[in-house]
Amino acid sequence: MAGPLLVLGLGNPGPRYAGTRHNLGFMAVEELARRLGVALGRGGHRSQWGEGRHQGRKLILALPQTYMNLSGQAAQSLMAYFDIAPQALLVVHDDMDLAPGQIKIALKGGAGGHKGVASILQTLGDDRFLRVKIGIGRPRFGETVEDFVLSGAYADQRETLARAVLEAADCLEVILALGPAEAMQRFHRRPEAAAPKQGAEKDG
Question: Which of the four, 16, 18, 23, 63, has the lowest number of CB atoms within 10 Å?
Answer without folding.
Answer: 16
